[in-house]
């Protein structure tokens, strides 16, 4: 008797003319994995080894078991890929949320820095339009404070915008053999920081800073 024709796709499923008991034994054999043997199936199901051997040859257990293993490996790989994708999407969302929070924080510090620059770093005395002598005393911050805040703002803006935080320098050889310098950085921020430093140092100095933090006429 010629062996029955087995489906090339999903051959681990129940086959034509395969009885329920024969398929139960086959399924038991498939699910044992690398430790599968006819003797193990016989002991687990309480069937004679002779019957198991006949079912195995008639319904091609060995090749079907290989197809079953391949199918299980494929399912596991898909599950791993899906889990990895879910994890990647979760962290991508978290990174985006963090970038938005960093940008908002940079804007808040930037606004505070602009307010600080409206006041002189040192005590300033001048005469108003009514001929009154005015003394404007500085708030309790220094040039170093402004510089640090400016650097913090710049780094937050660059980080949240996906821009390089530090300036990188690269040299290549030009046509005449000389070095050509290429600067790769957020130069707009560097220009702003230089302008801020110029603005601060350009303010007049008339006396030592006062820690009172108040203005008086």
Question: How does this structure look, described?
Answer:
By secondary structure, the chain is mainly alpha-helical. The protein is 55% helix and 10% strand. It has six helices and five strands, in the order ααααββαββαβ. It has helices at 20-31, 38-45, 49-58, 61-116, 143-160, 187-201; strands at residues 124-127, 133-136, 168-173, 179-184, 215-216. Strands 1-2-5 form a three-stranded antiparallel beta sheet, with no helix packed on it. A two-stranded antiparallel sheet has the order 3-4. A hairpin with a 5-residue loop joins β1 and β2. The longest helix has 56 residues, at 61-116. It starts with 19 loop residues before the first helix and ends with a strand. Residues 1-7, 182-186 and 204-217 have low confidence and may be disordered.
Ends apart, CA distance between termini? 116 Å
Question: In angstroms, what is the radius of gyration?
Answer: 39 Å
- Structural class, by secondary structure, is mainly alpha
Give the beta-strand count.
5
Would you identify the regions where 5 or more consecutive residues have pLDDT less than 50? 1-7, 182-186, 204-217
Principal-axes geometry comes out as rod-shaped
List the topology elements.
Layout: H1 20-31, H2 38-45, H3 49-58, H4 61-116, E1 124-127, E2 133-136, H5 143-160, E3 168-173, E4 179-184, H6 187-201, E5 215-216
Antiparallel strand pairs: 1-2, 2-5, 3-4
Helix pairs in contact: 1-4, 2-3, 4-5, 5-6
């Amino acid at each position: 008797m010629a062996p029955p024709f087995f489906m090339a796709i999903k051959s681990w499923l129940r086959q034509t003319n395969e009885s329920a008991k024969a398929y139960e034994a086959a399924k038991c054999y498939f699910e044992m994995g690398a430790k599968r043997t006819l003797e193990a199936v016989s002991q687990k199901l309480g069937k004679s080894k002779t019957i198991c051997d006949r079912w195995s040859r008639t319904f091609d257990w060995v090749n079907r078991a290989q197809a079953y293993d391949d199918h299980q490996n494929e399912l596991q790989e898909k599950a791993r890929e899906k889990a990895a994708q879910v994890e990647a999407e979760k962290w991508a969302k978290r990174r985006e949320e963090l970038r938005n929070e960093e940008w908002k924080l940079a804007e808040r510090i930037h606004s505070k820095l602009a307010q600080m620059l409206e006041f002189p770093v040192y005590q300033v005395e001048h005469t108003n339009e009514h001929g009154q002598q005015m003394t404007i005393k500085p708030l309790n911050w220094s040039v170093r404070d402004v510089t640090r805040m400016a650097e913090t703002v710049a780094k937050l803006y660059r980080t949240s915008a996906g821009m390089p935080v530090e300036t990188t320098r690269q040299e290549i050889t030009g046509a005449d053999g000389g070095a050509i310098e290429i600067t790769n950085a957020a130069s707009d921020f560097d220009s702003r920081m230089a302008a801020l430093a110029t603005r601060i140092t350009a303010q007049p100095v008339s006396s030592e800073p006062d820690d009172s933090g108040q203005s008086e006429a």
